[in-house]
Each structure stands twice: as C-alpha cells, then as structure tokens.
Amino acid sequence: MAEKLRIIPLGGLGEIGKNMTVIEYGEEIIIIDAGIMFPENDMLGIDLIIPDYNYILDKTNNIKAVLITHGHEDHVGALSHLMQLIDAPIYATKLTAGLIKGKLKQTKIAGQVTLRTIKAGDVFHVGSFMIEPFHVTHSIPDGVGYGITTPVGLIVHTGDYKFDHTPVDGWPPDFAKLAEFSQRGVLCLLADSTNADRPGWTQSEVVITAAFEDLFARAEGRIIVATFASLISRIQQVANVTAHHGRKLAITGRSMRDNSRIARELGYLDIPKELLIDISQANGLAANKVVILATGSQGEPTAVLGRLATGRHAKLNVEEGDTVVLSAHPIPGNEEMIYRIINQLFQRGAEVLHEGIANVHVSGHASREEMKLMINLVKPKFFVPVHGELRHLIAHSQLAGEMGIPEDNIAVVENGTILELDEHTMEVGPRIPGGYIFVDGSGVGDVGPRVLRDRERLANSGFFIAVVSIDDEGTVTGRPKIISRGFVYLDEAGDIMKGAEEVIVQTVRASGRNRDHIYKRIEGALSKYLYAETGRRPMVYTIVK
Amino acid sequence: MAEKLRIIPLGGLGEIGKNMTVIEYGEEIIIIDAGIMFPENDMLGIDLIIPDYNYILDKTNNIKAVLITHGHEDHVGALSHLMQLIDAPIYATKLTAGLIKGKLKQTKIAGQVTLRTIKAGDVFHVGSFMIEPFHVTHSIPDGVGYGITTPVGLIVHTGDYKFDHTPVDGWPPDFAKLAEFSQRGVLCLLADSTNADRPGWTQSEVVITAAFEDLFARAEGRIIVATFASLISRIQQVANVTAHHGRKLAITGRSMRDNSRIARELGYLDIPKELLIDISQANGLAANKVVILATGSQGEPTAVLGRLATGRHAKLNVEEGDTVVLSAHPIPGNEEMIYRIINQLFQRGAEVLHEGIANVHVSGHASREEMKLMINLVKPKFFVPVHGELRHLIAHSQLAGEMGIPEDNIAVVENGTILELDEHTMEVGPRIPGGYIFVDGSGVGDVGPRVLRDRERLANSGFFIAVVSIDDEGTVTGRPKIISRGFVYLDEAGDIMKGAEEVIVQTVRASGRNRDHIYKRIEGALSKYLYAETGRRPMVYTIVK
Q: How much is the pLDDT for B1?
C-alpha cells in the first residue's frame, strides 16, 4: 500500500489551522508556523493559548523543519515553547527571522535554535520535500506562502495574505509563482479564510496614506496613532506622513519599539534618525510638531493607549487638542474595552478617530474576490480552507464550491483532524483528541476546565471559609474564624457575619456528638444561609479543628 | 431670582441619560424612564446595573410622575427597584403599560403601583408641567417621546427613535407634532444619539420582510429565528412570513413568550391562533413546516439559542438542514459569545445567517440624516445629546454644530450632571457624585469596586488558604490544612503542596518564639513561593490557631 501524505491543521482557539500545520509523509514531518492565540473573555486568568501539539511529541525525531510564513504572534509566538521540545531548523525570511531572534533572546533556549534565513523565490529541499517560499502581501512585510512538493504532489499553503497591488514596501504578491504552480499541477491548496464573509476586494494599504495625509493636514495639536506593534508597514506610513508634515515621531510601547528597531536594522523600515524623538522629548516640542506611535489598539489596559486613557502614563497626558487615531480593527471580544478607551480619551478632550468613522485601517487579509483569484490562479485539485473560525471556513468552502471545485474535493475540518492524501484522493481521517493548551504564568497545561470552573465561581461570588473549633462535647469553642473575599463588602456586612456564626453554632449543636462529616453539614447550612441573605453562591468551605 | 429648570441625565453604564432623566422645577420632579443596563465583561458576578438615583431619594415627595417612553428593559427594567422607594404614578402607553404590568407582577410591589395608560397625542398636566407624548417609531411598537411644557419653556425628549416611513404596524412617526412644537418654540431638545456615527438613514423595518421572504423561499428544513424578546415588530414579521409559506410558528424562551402573549392580548401582535404551535409539537411536523422564534440573539448561554448551540435544549436539536437566523445586532461586548454560538451551530450542520452576511436586521435608532431632520423639525434653542456613549454624544453634538446650533447652546455632559435652564440660558452645573449601582443576587449596591477587585484577583489566580497550628514553643504541630481553588489543578500539584507546607514550617521555625504577626510572615513567604513556582499570584491567607 502506497504511503499517504498527512496534513493536520492544529492549534488555536476558534480559528482553525491558524497557529500550526503539520505535514507528514512516512517518517518525515514538516511544521508550518508555531503561533499563539489570546484567551477569550471567559477563560479567566489564562495568559495565552498554544496549539496542542501532542501528536508530534512522540515523533520529535521525525521533524525536519519548521517553516514560518510571517512574523505575527499568532504564527511565531509558540516557538519559544515548541523549540524546547524539538530539534529542527526554523526557516524564515529575513525580517521574520529577525523578529523571531528578538523573541527567543528572552527565553532560556536562546542560542540553541538553528534559524535559517530564506527568501521568497528560493527553492530548497528538506528530506523528501521540495520547499518553495513565495512572496505574499499582508500587514507585515516579508511574508511568504509555501509551495511544498511532496511525494504525492504539490501542496500550496497561502499563509496570511491579501492581494495588494500597491503595498507600502512596493513589493506586490508573486502572481507568476502561483501561476507556475498551477501549470505544474497543484494537488491541494490550503488558503487563508479570515475574511471569507467580506465581499469584494480588501483595500490596499495605500489608501491609509491618503487618510493620514488628510488627517495630519487638519490636526492642530499632537497626533497619537495606536496600531499593532507588528504592523511595520503602518509604522512606515505614519513615519512618512510625519516627515512630510514637518513633525517628529516618538515610538512608544516596548513591543513596538523592539519591532521597529529590528525592522530598521534589517532594512524593512526606512525612518531617518533625525525624525525620531524619545517620548520624554515630546513635551518639550510644540504640540503641532509631535506624532506618537503607541501600542494598545486592542484596548489592553496596560499598553500605552490604555494608560493614556486612564491618565496612568508617566510621561504623557492626553489633552484637549490632541488627535488620537486607532489604526486597527477590533479583534472580536475586545470591542468593549476599545470603546471604553475611546470614551475615556474623549473625556480628556481628545478627538478620536477609528475605523468606524474614518478610513484609518484596512485588513491584512483577502476578501472574497481575492479568494476567487487565488483559487483560479492555483487551480488545485483539493481545497482546504484554513485560518478563520468554522463560520469563515464554511463560507470559503461555499465560495470554492461555486467556483467549480467538487464538494468531495473540499475538506472543512476542525483542529486536530488528520487529512490523508495521495495523488488521487483526499480523505478526512480521525480527529486527534485534545485541542489547545492554556499557558498561565509559568505553567503550561496545568490549568484545565476544572480550575477554570472554580475561577468562574470565584469571579461570580467569591469564597467564604470558616475555621471552627469544636470540643469533645460537640460544642463550638471560641468564635469561628471567617475569611471571605469577593462575596460582599465585609465592612458593611456585620449582620451576615454574625448570622453565619450563629448558623455554625446551631448546626454543631444540632449534630450533638456526631462529628461525622460535620464540616459538610456546616458548609451546607452556611451555603443555604448565605444564599437566602444575598442571592449569591460563594464557594463555602469549613475546616474543623 | 427666578427659579431655574433642572435637567439631570442619569444612570446607565457607558451610555448617558439612557436609563433615566430627571426634570425638576421648584418642588416638582418628573422622571422619564427607569431602565437597567447589563454589566460589562469585567464586572464580575454583577447581574445588572441600575441608575444611581440618590439625588431624588431625599426628595421623593416632590416626584409627581414617572413618564415611560417605551417598553425596553433599558427604559423600564429598574421600575421594580424605583417604585419601592417612591409613590408617584407611572404614565405609559398601552403596550408599554402591559409589559410593565407583566414585570411588576413578579415583584413584591405588584398592585401597589399606579399605572396610568396614555396614548400618543394626549395632553395632560402634572403639577406645573404640561405633558404631550408624541408617537415615534422604534424597534418596539407604541413608543413615544415627550413634549414637556415647563415654566421656563418647552422641552422635547425624543426617547429612542428612528424615522421609519414604513413601520411594520403601519403607524409612522408624528412629524406634524414635532413641527407644531417648533412653531410654539422649543427651548431644549434631548435627542437619541445611539447611531451618531452612522451616516445616512436607518433602513425601514420593511426591508426585513423582503429578506425573510427570500430566505423562507430557499430554506428546505426548519427555520430558527433568534431576536430580542421585545422586538415585537420582528415577531410580527416572522409570523407573517411563516403564514405566507404555510409553516407553523413556535415561540420559545420565557421572555419572548410573555411579551408575545401581552402584545397579542393588547392587539399589538396579530398572530392567528392556528399559526402557533408549542415547541413540543415541532418535532412531530415535517421540517419544512416549522419556524421557531427563539431568545438568545446576544449569545446568552442559558437562552434558547445558547442551549441549542451546545445541545442542552430539552425539546429540540439543531440538525443538518436547519437554517438559523440571528436577527439582531451584537451589543458591544457580546461579539465573542455570539460568534462562538454561530460556530457551534455550524458544527451541528445548520446554515447560519446573521447581520454580517444577510439583510436580517436593521437598527431601531436614527442615523445621522434622521438626526438632522429631527433637529430641523424641532429647531431647539438648546441641544442636549443623550442615549449613547460619550463618543456618540460628541458626534451628535458636532452634527448639531454643523447645522448651526451655536456651540454654547449645546451641552455634552455625563450622567449626574445638572443642567440649569431658564428662558434664555442653559448652564452646566455640578456633577452629582456617584454613577451607577450594581445589583448582584438580591443585593443592591452592596458590591462595589473593592469586592470587584477581589473577584478579579480570584478570577485570575484563585485563592490559597493555610490553617496552621503552632505550639507554645513556636513549632508547627501536625500538618497545615490547605484549601485552594482556582489556582492550580490540585490532583497534579502534590509537589507544590508539599513545598508550601515546608515553607510554612521553615517560616515558623525562623521566627522562633516571636509570634507577632506570624500569619503575615507566613502569607508573605507562601506568596513568594507560589509565584516562584507558577508565576501566579493567588490570594493567600493564613489562619494561625
């Protein structure tokens, strides 16, 4: 029986195949990307989420390469975890490699990882695979997709992409390479589905420059632009317009400063030194000479914009006359925090512009017309929509169906599903158990659903713990010690505390000398009492000494 | 000195003047609306939020009337709290009064409240005020705004409105009344700002019918429509299209069933009895004969749609072939939950349509062109944007400015700000301390920022409590008892527990016989140890016996 190729989209939360893809043939494995996701609002206390790559852990010797598409966190953020477990080279383009190096520097595996710099258009071999990175446009420069010639046929993975004819760095997508792939015959296309519900064609990054030019011409005070720290091309655009209007630029926020420094060093960001000032110099300049680039466009309270909104920034105060621009799209779940910050900035007298009311952001992902172009350029036999939530994958699969790809040749699958391909067939295999792994503090995977359920209960009503001493006669001695937090404002709840003590004394008395599970009976009585008094259900525990 | 009129927008969270407005002249007070808001995602454990109406509490005898604009929760939901404290009649139109009666029935003040039914076009007097409710169109029938002739002049409050020329109930807004007000001269307009950042004109409810007709014609299986329980006109539209396509309608979800029953009884919903089935009958009919109206359009996990998405509905399973329609707009903060439910429904094989991809919802609020029409119809001397977050109020005020209302005649204020008017001037007075009040379980106002901060810490990392016995020699006796939840999965954290016990023993030993604040020293040492082990900061307490 001939060997089959296995493709396994992995990881992520909600989005499918976003953070990692495993490609396996015989005893050879290639991994594409290793990214993180951020938790949803009800994943309490979780810092970040990494793919559950359990599948490859007993095959680590088979892993031949980790191919990276671009430098965004959701594609490289888990490398610091993954590379502790495997020993394979990372392949990435120059900017992406620079950003990865910057991140690995902060970990204990710095220096132990082999990082091979590639460029779009290269052709190289890894085991039985021939790898051809091709240039794509996205919201960070130097992004690539991969053509991977396997023993069963050519697989094309788009990475994150849009077809931007006029990107900020002047380097359009490599249409010729895609057409060449299709001439050679593409067995399977894995394509970015993020915007599968957006009709039309995503606007070029170039429209942002026009919007900024207009906005800078009108602004009389300082201009504060918040965007993603990794949106290098946006940083370039702001720098260009800043220079054009005779202002100076301060880049703030650690991640944005780090990324800008790396991108400048590697030649992906062209900002003359004279244009840049430190944030501490901004207050010494006339307001109409200052532009500030800031992190915090997703409403993160501890990032620069969040601190500015609440007046907690050490060096800068937002004032009347300032113009704040949110040059970013809210990631679902962040809307509430972002609108809160917008209101707070208005409260301080600033003018606030955002995507909803001005043309200050465009997506980095292809819309439906671009998706059609991708499919028609590549002409794959099999089609696997990836990158996006299930709803996006389904929309993308319907689009592919409308374009003539037979339904049986399209696989909409969830993370961990094994796709098996040979020259003629694609089969949807079993789904590997497990999904994603929570990272909380320094713990990886030690917080699961049970701990989260406890956190949810604590978040709703707090806890109430009583330490009770009972003598041999079955009588409470002394006053029970009570510790409670998150339940009720204790300073004003004296009656409830007194009532709880009374409940304890009576429960013990009613039990006489029967001390079997007396703590359980006290807990039951306390829970009932506290619910009757407040309508809340704190976690109740009793320790009997 | 002549008496001034005071207008005080109150209550709500984020939105200003949304839930309550106080109008005061001398010793007479009128209240417009008494609604609730739902908490934001980081207001842990809070059930709902009511306006902080402390200002009127020592003047309850002055309150002459509570005027209600329409029957939505954010305008009537706090009546059950407010009416416990004051003794004034509620004025509401027929449908609104019916809905209020339904809600008060569930409270202890049922029967004690005077509810006066009014209708649009009425003129009545309350103390020195002449009150003229006027018909507006909104996403619930029988809505009104109020013209209030006060001793200093005519105040017009729009309530929630849009200018829908073709509403489902065939009753267009009362343009003539607004024009008449302007002829008499309007001192001040308080106007709905919800959509102040939406250009153009909000679509008429009538477009929904076309979209539903189209969708019903194509659907081959069951159709499940989720919408707001109070969106009576949407329920009417679904019923009409259901009848037109020879299907039967099941209305599910307690609030939607209650509202539909009341609206039918009062003649605001025209659904023949034969059209309706109970949800338990739905499974007995052919799939293409069934339509189900459901609650849960905001992603609430315990509402009908949430239970369907996770397979927890007792009588219904979503299956391949079903079409689910979310006929609602996500309230900011709910997007994540809504998208999760959409993905879950897709997972079950349903086709899911929502506002983002089909024309299945229109807003109930005026867009910018309607706002301009309102201002030009009413021609007020002073303008106060209300209903909306600060960002909307500012956008609305800029629009009013562009239309020629002098900047000094426009007041953008926050909740609790006292506006003082006479015939010629409007002054922004002081802001009353306080904002909104949390309701948690049966507690009103007993959970504040301190309890919420504790809940946030508990939500992030849980708690860790040690009960330690120390003998007179200063030695730990027995093993410390440890209770911990939400911190780490205890079954797999034996090492950490052992380490913590060791930390306790060593800390006590190092303290010798000095037992002053020994619990503090243990807590400090434990916190440090747990952070070093896990990178987390649970709440740590120690009880020394």
A: 53
